[in-house]
Task: inverse folding
């Protein structure tokens, strides 16, 4: 019987990329559970598998092996068309690059994913859009175009687009990566507000400062989830190898 409180359950997830005779293990035996209402960050150094894991969580890619249950349904072996339907209904994406369409207004950008839902009429779509824009403080910009907005405002619109579908989980991919510190902090404050309002959020970030703001921190290193102590040790060993490679401690090289 499925735990109705569990939004995501990954068990034994492996992802192997093969190019010619080279085999790269991007993820190895990843086990992860996210409960309804949790705010989770996944962080780690470049190349540790964050993007690969996010692609699997967002049904943009499939694992080589392992099980993936999303909102009580096994989605590991779905066809690409079935994954697209589930993705549209269950997952809200917040991208680093905003991914807004320049020749559509704010309102049209937020509404676009809803138009692919055959069971939603125009009135319901407009209501959902208005509610989502109001929630992120962008209702007054509904008729503006992305080029007329600041980076922070564009990211708020992207958050509204993710919220409008009322997804089971919000996946945020480096949501502050294209923003200055002030706008980055504003977006993090918005995510915290959404979490307090009941949203389930999983954020991938390389920024340790922002990872620390979340309710639960998942550390990824070389394709595996590790505990905090192991993560710190592995990072230290990596730094020591780098120091040896360049021939001097990095502190002394500053």
Result:
């Amino acid at each position: 019987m499925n735990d109705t409180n569990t939004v995501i359950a990954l068990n034994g997830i492996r992802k192997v990329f093969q190019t010619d005779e080279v085999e790269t293990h991007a993820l190895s035996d990843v086990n992860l559970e996210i409960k309804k209402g949790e705010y989770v960050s996944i962080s780690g150094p470049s190349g540790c598998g964050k993007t690969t894991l996010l692609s699997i969580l967002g049904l943009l890619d499939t694992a080589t092996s392992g099980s993936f249950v999303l909102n009580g349904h096994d989605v590991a072996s779905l066809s690409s068309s079935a994954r697209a339907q589930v993705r549209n209904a269950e997952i809200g994406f917040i991208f680093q690059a905003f991914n807004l369409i320049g020749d559509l207004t704010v309102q049209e950008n937020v509404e676009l994913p809803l138009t692919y839902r055959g069971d939603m009429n125009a009135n319901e779509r407009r209501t959902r859009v208005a509610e989502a824009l109001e929630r992120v403080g962008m209702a007054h910009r509904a008729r503006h175009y992305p080029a007329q907005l600041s980076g922070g405002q564009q990211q708020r619109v992207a958050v509204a687009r993710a919220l409008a579908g009322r997804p089971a989980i919000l996946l945020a991919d480096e949501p502050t990566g294209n923003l200055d510190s002030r706008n980055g902090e504003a977006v993090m404050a918005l995510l915290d507000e959404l979490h307090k309002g009941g949203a389930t959020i999983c954020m991938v970030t390389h920024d340790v400062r922002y990872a620390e703001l979340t309710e639960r921190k998942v550390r990824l290193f070389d394709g595996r989830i590790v505990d905090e102590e192991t993560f710190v040790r592995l990072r230290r060993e990596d730094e020591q190898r780098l120091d040896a490679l360049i021939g001097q401690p990095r502190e002394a090289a500053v």
Notes: The chain has a mean pLDDT of 91.
